[in-house]
Automatic annotation (TrEMBL):
Species annotation: Microbispora triticiradicis
Record protein name field: Acyl carrier protein
Carrier domain sequence ranges: 2-81
Gene3D superfamilies (alphabetical): ACP-like
InterPro entries: ACP-like_sf, PP-bd_ACP
Amino acid sequence: MTEITQRLIDYIQENLVLEGDDIKVDETTPLLQSGLLDSLRTARLLNFLRRDIGVPIPAAKLDPENFKDVLTIVAMVRELESV
């Protein structure tokens, strides 16, 4: 598991999973289907990616397909880092 993958999993588990929800986040947890990402939590995640990972996500990438799970987000981040 890469450092970015682990940091994302930790961030989502600690900051986006609501207290009392029995969700254990891993690389393939369906973030949209499970309800973990709504508009507010997505904004918080985007801020984390920009501030802590150092990769701003452009509006063109704000497609639900890019936020299905942690692996999908990491792939998008890698793609943006290489541009």
